[in-house]
Amino acid sequence: MLAHPPLLVAIQDPPSRRSVLPTFSGFMSFAPPPPGRPRVAIYVSRTLNQHLSCSTVFHESSDMISVDVFSPEGLFGSPHYSLWVTSVYLLRTNSPPYRSVSPERIFTSPSYPHLVLGDFNLHYPLADPGRSPSEREFIISTRYFDAAFDVPYHLLNTPGVCTRFPFDTTSRPSVLDLAFVNTALSSLVSSWDTPLRSTGSDHVPCVVTLKPPAVMLPPPTPHWALLDLYAVRKALDTFTILPCPARPTPNSLSRWFDIYSTRLTSRLTSHAPCKRPCPHSKPWWSPHLSSLRREYHRFARLSRLDPSRLNWSNVKSSRRTYFKSIASAKKAHWADFLSSATPRSVWTAKRFAFGRPPQRFPDLPGASNPAEVAETLLDHFFPSKPPPPPLLPLTRYEDYTPITSEEISMALSKSSNTSAPGPDHIPYSVWKSVHHIKPSLLPSLLDPLLAHGFHPPSLKRPLGIVLDKSGKPSYDSPSSFRVIVLLCTLSKILERVVASRLSAQATICSLIHPFQYGSLPGRCTADAALVLQHNVESFHRLRYRVSTLSLDVKGGFDNVECPSLLSPPQERGQPVPGPVGRLFPQGPHLSPDFPRVPSLLRRRLGRGPSRIPRLLSSIRYIRLLPPPGNPQVTYHLLCRRLCCHGSLALLQDQHSAPSEVLLNAQEKGFPDQHLLFCSEDLADPLEKHQEQ
What we know:
Layout: E1 8-12, E2 27-30, E3 40-45, H1 46-51, E4 53-58, E5 64-70, E6 82-89, H2 103-106, E7 114-119, H3 135-150, E8 153-155, E9 177-182, H4 183-186, E10 189-193, E11 207-210, H5 229-237, H6 250-270, H7 287-305, H8 309-339, H9 346-354, H10 370-381, H11 405-413, H12 428-437, H13 441-451, E12 463-468, E13 481-486, H14 489-508, H15 525-541, E14 545-548, H16 562-571, H17 578-581, H18 597-605, H19 611-616, E15 621-624, E16 635-642, E17 648-656, H20 658-667, E18 674-678, H21 680-691
Parallel strand pairs: 6-7, 14-18, 15-18
Antiparallel strand pairs: 1-3, 2-3, 4-5, 5-6, 7-9, 8-9, 10-11, 12-13, 15-16, 16-17
Helix pairs in contact: 6-13, 7-8, 11-12, 11-14
């Protein structure tokens, strides 16, 4: 018996009466038109025809018929919209190719998936290795198999498994029923088998099972809002973390962290119910609806066994009650959701009311299947880099300060409970509860990693979500999409602890530029705007025109040079603390063209370098802003002039006050001064580019 009823049945030499095929409940029959008795037929399940479009394709020969299964949304999760199933019955003839249908008509070169099956009446050693065909049979069958392999088509039959068992004892079993698939369908075939017995014919049925590509259903998401904190408290009381190995290797330390982090997360997950028990569960479903559904199907089965008027009336009344209850449950759930809506959930209600926009599948050139699309997007978002150097032996830093529970509390206080978690599916709110119950747990788990300067691979495994950018004219380029990378929340907690320590050490070692206002305590963008406004108004009072230039440095964090971070304190004779000096113990990948100021200007002003001199023609001076509230710091001024040939001549390079610089500039013949406010790291690249 088959586990599932067949959806397509191809029959060769079917029984018929007056060229009419027999009928079967739940199937539709397709056969070549008369005259003559049909030699081939295909039965299509009505269930399949209700969901997909099935049309008949006739050929010149009546011994061959095809059915085109079409879906506008694609079949089996692939970009193909059609699937052809061809049934063939080859009769012997006296003229070449000595069969009723030539191999060129059977094995074409379609771009869509194609399945060819039937009674070929051929003996070939590849399908039946135990048989020795005659020379004539071998030549005839070789022509068909060569035509199939040239396209190419692949044979599905298991070699040596016979499909025909003659009734007489003088003939031996043979392999005459063959099945071929082309390359577009070969990856979707699950199995070929002969599990059924013969039903009166000397041929046994052959079953070909197609399967869609493996779809990774999302795992059940725990409902963390219903987490049983009392059970979690009892589970954490008995949870202990043993110390890491004394002299760990990268593999042993990674294994130690994975063991205890997995044990901890599994204990937390076991005490939280799932939001959806299965992928198809609905939030408005109730046990009452389940009972109504069982009652409706019970009456439906009784009516099929005994189609009486009483049973049919019971079916109609139970169906009416069942569907009305579903509508009432949906309406009540929607009303309850709107009544308890918050400012955060109002956008969720809007999305439910208006529906989600259709997802745009990337139509990238050269990518014909989902695997190639994923590879193209990965190459665009994460280009390949040189392989990292081999991992060095891990040693514990002597001047290392252990992680305290106060640092974990500070990192968790800056984390939002609504932030999307990564592959672990554990939000920050759960870690806040865990840290409140047992404050020593997270420090004991994360401290060995930071003490040995090692980040395990399990914390680097992200969850990437590709979203399309709205308003794009076409979506045939990876630049029309953006990716959101979500890391485990444990990794983000450790990152915040390291960032707070590095910020403190960078302030002590004077690694932070005095004009840096972002991501610093006590400073914000408003401070930078106030300083800029103050300097602009100061020069306006002197009746000078002022110009400002804003540049967005793209990819700056990916091209930070470790020597440039450590050189300022070393030049001043200050010792570099261990955590900062070992920030990049293995050496980062340095980009030789950092900072790429000319390319930034071209992106801002258009393609081509011809617009850069046009921009710099209005710049006379490049002035660096002093830190706010410290008038004793001298002004670093770089006065440049753009000559007619496009090169910059150095006019002055000294420490002077603004009035002195303007006076010197007027004496050298610059009546119209334009002052440009920028940072120090942009002055030298601009001059270098103009000199080139």
